[in-house]
UniProtKB/TrEMBL annotation:
Gene3D superfamilies in UniProt: Spore Coat Polysaccharide Biosynthesis Protein SpsA, Chain A (3.90.550.10)
Protein name: Glycosyltransferase
Domain Glycosyltransferase 2-like span(s) in chain numbering: 1-126
Pfam hit, one: Glycos_transf_2
UniProt KW keywords: Transferase
Superkingdom of the source species: Bacteria
Length: 286
């Protein structure tokens, strides 16, 4: 569990792990340079349960905290959770059993419920099929994978903070088997600190880079163009010309067929960008 100034929800997040029906685990909490009460909360909770280990480091960002935690891990199965989210009590037991029953699977992942800052239900997010990974992050927030996946991929890319998980799953799908588990096993919290325009803009830019990279590996021009167009329309903060250019080069008819949706997307992006305090900008770097 990477922790950075997570005092508001940290106790709930840790308790959700400690209350798992599957009990044979270690919880490595990596304090990534917190300046709030998080270190004291971690210390107090570690005194009450020997399965908690605390690792501290200067602030280096989420991917670096994940890599530090997994470098310390001794278990043969890996997972991680955030300091503001919660596991349902049967998450680990269900996913451990899924890997046991499917020895050819390397990664299993489940659906989750999105909640607000007060813990109120927003929606359920089912797991997507691995084949949809060019159109959405199929894995989501509830997952378990074999240690060999971490070793083969070299951990999380520390230059992709905010999209490190999507990058990890995209790279993993090239050589490992991913299996969805159609159960609700996690509570994913959306709150003000996690949904700023600045953060979302950065994540959208990184995801666009990932899709541009992955589509270069696809031998089907139409599929490549479809993936690029879906990513283009998913971003209402910036119109990314590079995605449109690459889609056009890959398969022109796919772009032509989507002209009505593209026109609507452009209008929606302009409407968003001309709000007070915004300047209209076309992104050409991603």
């Amino acid at each position: 569990m990477p922790v950075y100034n997570g005092q508001t929800y940290l106790k709930s997040a840790i308790n959700s792990v400690l209350r798992q029906s599957f009990t044979d685990f270690e919880l490595i909490c990596v304090d990534d340079g917190s300046t709030d009460r998080s270190p004291r909360i971690l210390a107090a909770m570690a005194k009450r349960d020997c399965r908690i280990r605390i690792v501290t480091q200067p602030n280096a960002g989420l991917p670096a905290a994940l890599n530090r935690g997994f470098a310390e891990a001794v278990g043969h199965l890996h997972s991680w959770t955030s300091d503001d989210n919660m596991l349902r009590p049967n998450m680990l037991a269900t996913l451990v059993e899924a890997l046991k029953s499917k020895p050819d699977s390397d990664i299993v992942y489940a659906g989750y419920t999105v909640i607000d800052a007060q813990g109120r239900f927003i929606r359920y997010q089912p797991p997507a099929n691995p084949e949809e990974r060019l159109f959405t992050n199929p894995v989501g927030a509830a997952f378990l994978y074999r240690r060999e996946v971490t070793r083969a991929l070299g951990g999380y890319d520390e230059t992709l903070s905010g999209a490190e998980d999507y990058d990890f799953w995209l790279r993993a799908a090239r050589q490992f088997t991913m299996t969805p588990v159609h159960q609700d096993l996690y509570l994913y919290r959306r709150h003000a600190a996690s949904m700023t325009d600045t953060r979302m803009k950065r994540i959208k830019s990184l995801v666009a880079r990932l899709i541009l990279r992955e589509t270069q590996l696809i031998g089907e021009p139409e599929l490549r163009a479809r993936a690029l167009m879906v990513q283009l329309r998913a971003d209402t903060l910036t119109f990314r010309c590079k995605l449109l250019q690459e889609a056009w080069k890959a398969h022109r008819m796919t772009v032509v067929r989507q002209l009505p949706q593209l026109s609507y997307h452009i209008a929606r992006t302009v409407k968003h960008r001309i709000r007070p305090g915004h300047k209209l900008k076309a992104g050409r770097q991603s």
